Amino acid sequence: MKSLTQKPDSMETLEQLKLDFPHLDIAGFMNEMTNKKSADNTDSIILECLAKMDETQPDWTFAASRLLLKEIYRESTQNRETTSPYENFYGLIKILISEGIYSKKLLTYYSRHEIEELGASIVPVRDHLFNYIGLKTLTDRYVAKNKEKEIFELPQERFMIIAMVLMAQENGKQRIRFVKEAYWALSHLYMTVATPTLANAGKCYGQLSSCFIDTVDDSLQSIYDSNTDIANLSKHGGGIGVYLGKIRSRGSDIKGFKGVSSGVLPWMKQLNNTAVSVDQLGQRQGAVAVYLDVWHKDILPFLDSRLNNGDERQRTHDLFTGVSIPDVFMEVVEKREDWYLFDPHEVRTVMGFSLEDQFDERRGAGSFREKYQQCIKHPYLSKEKIPAIEIMKRIMVSQLETGTPYMFYRDEVNRMNPNNHAGMIYCSNLCTEIAQNQKPTLQDEQYVENGKIITVKSAGDFVVCNLSSINLGRAVPSGVLKRLVSIQVRMLDNVIEQNTIPVLQAQLTNQAYRGVGLGTFGWAHLLAKKKLNWHSEEALHYTGEIYEAIAYHAIEASSDLAFEKGSYPLFEGSDWQNGDFFVKRTFDQDGTWNWKSLQNKVQKNGMRNGYLLAVAPNSSTSLIAGSTASIDPVFRKFYSEEKKNYKIPVTAPDLSHETYRYYPSAYDVDQHASIRQNSIRQKYIDQSISFNLYVRHTIQAKELLDLHLQAWKKGLKTTYYTRSTSSTGEYDDCESCSS
């Protein structure tokens, strides 16, 4: 350590900061540091620097980031034995391959000449775009280190490696151009990739997809097979959604023996144990959400499963819950009528159909309500009658205490499913933004051959979420949306090619639908920069303007990819192919965008991706990109980001006297205004949106019910957490879905 008579590196950096941040009193700060015994301790200077942050001087975060960056550069050059940061990119790859961190495929895909060309394309000054929390998050969690956790890779190299991995199998003549284009998008922080891609691209371990959805059949074999699959995915960093609605209820018969089934709760306990015991690469426990239909006989104990009181044998505190809700339930809640609960196994046996396989093809009419009424009227089918409002009260009580259950409006989801020709959607994922076809995997037979046990299965639709997100606060003002979305769709599609998923039926589903989820974050940031009031009509109009543009560019990009590489295998018969996707959404044919022309293009060229748009929570990656999470308002204008080992002050991005009033705090926002925005946004998104409701602990039951009724009536497909100021629940946004 340098003595106080010497000028430490951090003080030299502060000299430069006087030039870069003339509006900050860097000179006065330097004088303070000179008088402190810890003046040569970079960590102490950074903490002192951050302590000066407040709502009037947010740029101290960038000053602190420069100090941290200097320290990261020092450590990296020391470990790599180079003289300056970002020196010898090819050498870095060789070192980390020899350390068992990088995959050898990097040197298979790219020649030394190509790697050196890409290394020369890295722009180190883009590291200055990071604020402190963004740089620290990226460095602590995602840049490549050796097995002793020493820093080797630098931020811009992480972005370049991701670009190289995702473009590795592109056409040789275009490949380097696509790598540079992907690097451009990432390094400018115009977009972020999903956390698994950010963490694992180019490395020997882990997979690239964000999360998964499994459907459990009503058999012991399926239940245990599903648990094994979930454990394997959780081990490799995936968040899991699980549909349990096909499992028979408590008191149902098994092989004709009456009243012996124990229902879904024991299997939930098993999943709960799996989530806790099989952690995600040693970083955090597994994250699993379970969904059940609101007409299932086990719905009441299911709704109580996360509460803090009651019988602990009936509690699964480490699972997240979601309820699959048909239109007719919301109708009878509003009318204060009775609701009926059934056992899905008995329905199949007595009625000859599965109630969960039906949905209302039109609002107010359709197959589900017809079959539901048949079940009510059948004299030999057992049923339980309960006022619908009582179930809704149990839902809301749980939401105010734990934040869950999530709401999944199944009829709207399936009506707008562009691939309803090929299957059914029963639930969403851990973060409620994914809506893709599902089907359980079934074991057909098992036999011995040449001393080996052979198991034959019929693969179901095991949903895979491949995510990335546009940084609205940076990309829209820069005017790069069309260029950005084009490269982003290509990157997402290539995740499917590059990924190795430890569950084979998930790989098959990934190839069959080629589903991706292009999303957004930084909505609050963008509104503040545009000086638009959250509650204004202008904000509603702007919502439509932005998301219509994103949808148009994304659909066009996927269709262009289909022309180049071919459509996804199930394109024929889909709403994309027959044009119903465009008809159902009643796009404005006289507006800015020529939707009729795009419809013709899609029908002619095809679509590369069966599912395309989804808005994830992206909490951690929005921190890296220096913006606001998802479509949410800010929690506060100035707050501290608290993790296990640090507490860092953070301000809303681009906070100034001009933007201050345009950053309403989440609990001050009229949630009806947010629902209206989301309704407009949902029109352009083929999947769904991680949409939180922020309510105060003083909210009346009628007010919360009104929010749920409005969300359903406005055509929302899902709602995520109900975030209450009084909740003791832990709102654990899925890190995997952060994109």
Can you walk me through this structure?
This protein is of the alpha/beta class. It folds into 3 domains: 9-187, no CATH class; 192-207 and 466-691, Anaerobic Ribonucleotide-triphosphate Reductase Large Chain (Alpha-Beta Barrel), CATH 3.20.70.20; 211-251 and 264-446, Alpha-Beta Barrel (Anaerobic Ribonucleotide-triphosphate Reductase Large Chain), CATH 3.20.70.20. The protein is built from 30 helices and 18 strands. It has a 7-stranded mixed beta sheet with strand order 11-2-3-4-5-8-17. Strands 1-12-13 form a 3-stranded mixed beta sheet. A two-stranded antiparallel sheet has the order 6-7. Strand 3, helix 13 and strand 4 (288-293) form a beta-alpha-beta unit. Helix 3 packs antiparallel against helix 4 and helix 21 packs across helix 24. The longest helix is centred in the last third of the chain and has 29 residues, at 537-565. It is globular and about 85 Å long.
Descriptive key words:
739 residues, alpha/beta, Anaerobic Ribonucleotide-triphosphate Reductase Large Chain, three-stranded mixed β-sheet, 30 helices, globular, disordered N terminus
Oligomer: single chain
Shape: globular
Strand order of the largest sheet: 11-2-3-4-5-8-17
**Structural classification:** alpha/beta
**Can you tell me the CATH topology of the largest domain?**
Anaerobic Ribonucleotide-triphosphate Reductase Large Chain
Low-pLDDT sequence parts: 1-6
Sheet with most strands: 7 strands, mixed
Q: What is the CATH C level class of the largest domain, in words?
A: Alpha Beta
Count of helix runs: 30
